[in-house]
Amino acid sequence: MAMAARSATSTSISLATDNTPTTNRTPLLAPALPAKDDATTDESELKRSVDQYKHIFAIHSQPRTSTLSHDSVDSPSFIGFRNLMVLVLIVGNLRLVIENYMKYGVLVHLSGSEFRRDDLKMFFLLYALIPTHLFVGFLIELVASIHARGAKAKNQKADIKDPKLRVAWRIIAFAHVVNATLSLGVANWVVYYKIHHPLIGTFCEFHAVIVWLKQLSYALTNRDLRDAFLASAPTPPLYASAPYPTNITLSNLSYFWWAPTLVYQPVYPRSPSFRWSFFLKRVGEVIALSITIWFLSAQYAVPVLQNSVTAMGKMDVVVVLERLMKLSTISLVIWLAGFFALFQSGLNALAECLKFGDREFYTDWWNSGSVGTYWKTWNKPVNHFMRRHLYAPLQGRGWSSQSASIVVFTFSAILHELLVGVPTHNIIGVAFAGMMFQIPLVALTVPLEKMRGSASVIGNAIFWISFCLVGQPLAALVYWFTWQAKFGGGGERGYGLA
């Protein structure tokens, strides 16, 4: 009877629970819970209050910093300012374009009358003859390789200090020096005395210097390869497919002649295939940028330079400074276009033809935190030559890094003076002095870069100001003035003050 009663009671409780609405159910053994969360209630009531009374919500609810303050938590983006600067540059330069057209009309012409026929003849003659010195260097090295084979055959590990070998290598070195000196010397003489137009002379001089540097690299590299061959010393594994003296062939030299590098190696890393689309794009860029440079030079740079002659003659400092600032914009655009045309488009097109694999012709020089970093990153082919054939050997002889750097800058300064002074027929030392002035600038900006990191704003600003906003325009003004003083050319040529 008791069990029946308990069963009936359980059943009634179960039925009562099942029939109870879900919202009112409470487990019999569950702990008691609050009906509502007090915080949620406060927030909802506060929201209803603020919605009803619009003027009471708290604007200043927590401590915060200004966006541009140093103690700001989040770094702001400056994309908007970048867009503004681009727009200002576009609008400002567009105004100069309209002003230039209103003053001068179209100055660009395609007559070709400014080029003398004799200048063009000498250009093609030099372009054909200068590379022959490379092949003379090949013949010299061929004789040296035959001599090295014979010495190696007599003794598996020949002594490079053997008196007979040392005499032979001195004769080989003397032959290379004579060949290289004639190569650059004859080219300089022809450009200075036989080619009047500075543009044609500049192309000839650049070609002569490039071939000359290749000659030096070919001779110096093969000298060390020859010594390593005689001493049975190891060489880089990359050279295994063309060890000395099997690398002394016409095909090997011809590849180096056209390769986009100034540093000779028996073997270079190669790309797997030739891409027609890539090649044609780069060639198109070279053509378009060359036309742009020509147009900007004739339409904008020439009038500014012409209108500077009188002020330079009178040493009117204010007018010269104004001309310098105006020329800086034009020269910067021309120089950037030339950089892209040569290092990005031209060298990549040449590398694609030859399947030349190492195409790091430059790195992000525009972010340079010091002048020294710029010279290491903007022109990698020349930097590689200087580091391999000048800087490293000097350090190997016990020179300090500072002394070796001074020698490198001096060598570069001489080349800059030749590249500018010989075509303009005015070797006045301005380009040389400009390069030598880089030494104190490097000493000034390198500590800034070390203190503030590679993104040093001060060092980067010094680089841009000294190089692109002062150095290049000032050199252009000086050499143009000396050209006008030596050869005339019509003075102002009817231009108003541009």
UniProtKB/TrEMBL annotation:
Region named Disordered: 1-41
Signal peptide: none
Pathway(s) the chain acts in: Lipid metabolism
Places the protein is found: Endoplasmic reticulum membrane
Annotated TM spans: 84-102, 122-146, 167-189, 283-302, 332-351, 396-415, 427-446, 458-481
Keywords: Acyltransferase, Endoplasmic reticulum, Membrane, Transferase, Transmembrane, Transmembrane helix
Membrane topology: Multi-pass membrane protein
UniProt feature, compositional bias: Low complexity: 1-34
InterPro entries: MBOAT_fam (IPR004299), Oat_ACAT_DAG_ARE (IPR014371)
Top-rank taxon: Eukaryota
Family membership: Belongs to the membrane-bound acyltransferase family. Sterol o-acyltransferase subfamily.
Function: Sterol O-acyltransferase that catalyzes the formation of stery esters.
PANTHER family per UniProt: DIACYLGLYCEROL O-ACYLTRANSFERASE 1, STEROL O-ACYLTRANSFERASE
Name this polypeptide is given: O-acyltransferase
